[in-house]
Amino acid sequence: MQLESKLPKVGTTIFSVMSQMATENDAINLSQGFPEFPVSQELIDLVYQNMQIGHNQYAPMPGLPVLRKAIAQKIEKTGGVALDFDAEITVTVGATEAIFSSIMALVGKGDEVIVLEPAYDCYIPAIELAGASPVPIALQQPDFSPDWELIKQQISKNTKILMINSPHNPSGAVLNKQDMEELKEILKANPQLMLLSDEVYEHIIFDGREHFSVLNDAFLASRSIVVYSFGKTFHATGWKIGYVVAPEMIMKEIRKVHQYNCFTVHTPSQHAMAEFLQYEKNYLGINDMYEKKRDFFAKAVSNSRFKIVPSYGTYFQLLDYSAISDIPDMEFAEKLIKEHGVASIPVSAFYSERKDDHLLRFCFAKGEETLQKAADILCRI
């Protein structure tokens, strides 16, 4: 029996590879982006209580109305944007499913999707599975800002989606108000074009900077699909719960795929999230906590030979090792695990052509003891 792979270039995701290598070598795991600290006991109790009550059967395909209402209220509170919870919000199996279902619903053979790299590794496989062609464009170094003129040059009549991500994984860069104006100009010049905005780190942004969501502009919102993650906000990445926001016409198509992809999401968790969202402190309070962790880790590695790349959002810190070695980043990351006991992610894994700038991504969503131990090792290299 012979099989022809639909994704012949795709292997196991780099996050799983590096985490497994960390386990095998008993290394401090700052590679995969999951918090080390516990989920709120209140949220855990709410899930358990809803299981006990009997909320254990299928939820409606788009998500529980009570949760979608709570999401709409949260978005209106934080961004002043009024949404139709029934038609414009769908609860998904994490942000990855939201991205996958959106791409599968909206593009196909002959279409093009612009991806700004480095990019999260689920983007391009979804585009290829949909039969469309990814058009990767590198963000500018050293600040990982978009080259809007180059992006405009790469747009053709076949370009259906432009994918953006802010705050940006892996770099921690954030889009600003001028970037939003550039996006408006691009959409006005290309009526066939939609935005797919990955905003899963919306509540993790530093140094007094503001998160500019495409939903905050009525024109951008009318042509955008926006993806969010409860897992990132509430330290519950293993629960795989997120949501997607889009205009009704677009959402109808996304739901057609969503209903056959997974149909619905864990019911008691949806009830729990709806209750937990009623209190702003549960999602607005994480910003300061992560900024302190970023500062702690940055200070702890400041005496090392690694160069810190400024991080303005997410819970990731890039370190440049070019003053230490000129070997490829994957090789250096493996050496760091096997010889020194610290796991990271080589940033070349976020590029389709494996562009190597000698950068490693470290997750600082950990306890101070873990971060200090890792930093002490890095300072000795």
From TrEMBL:
Annotated Aminotransferase class I/classII large domain residues: 26-376
Recorded family membership: Belongs to the class-I pyridoxal-phosphate-dependent aminotransferase family.
Record keywords: Aminotransferase, Pyridoxal phosphate, Transferase
Annotated SUPFAM superfamilies: PLP-dependent transferases
Presence of the UniProt keyword Ion transport in the record: no
TM helices/strands, residue ranges: none
Single annotated GO MF: kynurenine-oxoglutarate transaminase activity
Annotated source species: Marivirga aurantiaca
UniProt name for this protein: Aminotransferase class I/II-fold pyridoxal phosphate-dependent enzyme
GO cellular component: cytoplasm
Requisite cofactors: pyridoxal 5'-phosphate
Pfam families in UniProt: Aminotran_1_2 (PF00155)
